[in-house]
Amino acid sequence: MRELDSIWDDAYSQHDAFHMTDGVNKTECLIYKGIKIQSGNKSTHIYKPKGEFYEELDDNEYQLIYFYGWRKGVLKLLLKIYQDKLDKISELIKIEINTRRNDSHLKYLRSNRQGVMDDYLKVVTQISKL
């Protein structure tokens, strides 16, 4: 298990993360694959996207980052996020089939599911290369 400061150092050393600094609040943040790590005022936090904003990770998600490190932990977290999306889409497809049976909405849900599955496969491929 790693400390949050060493996670920050690991994330900061990676060259493919987007780096931002806030001179007013004296904070720095890095964004990699949509996951944001923010350091400042002697504290470090990790956030995941939630709609148009970011939401701090819960304890189980922090444990993924602690156990696997920054890069692999972010990829494992993305797999969890994609799996949650796939579960929601599958539930919507079941509801649509059992109630309205709107073909165009079913087609949209299935194409949406295929897009998420493609993203999931890309992340699995990246994890296998590490």
Order of helices and strands: HEEEEEHHH
Low-pLDDT residue spans? none
Binned, the helix content reads 55-70%
Structural category: alpha+beta
Count of helix runs: 4
**Strand proportion:** 15-25%
Specify the biggest β-sheet: 5 strands, antiparallel
Beta strands, count: 5
Radius of gyration: 18 Å
Strand order of the largest sheet: 1-2-3-4-5
Report on the architecture of this protein.
The chain is an alpha+beta fold. 58% of the residues lie in helices and 22% in strands. It is built from 4 helices and 5 strands; from the N terminus they run H-E-E-E-E-E-H-H-H. The protein has helices spanning 4-13, 59-68, 70-98, 103-129, and strands spanning 18-22, 27-32, 35-40, 43-50, 53-56. It has a 5-stranded antiparallel beta sheet, covered by helices on one side. A hairpin with a 2-residue loop joins strand 2 and strand 3. Helix 2 (59-68) crosses helix 3 (70-98). The longest helix has 29 residues, at 70-98. The mean pLDDT is 90.
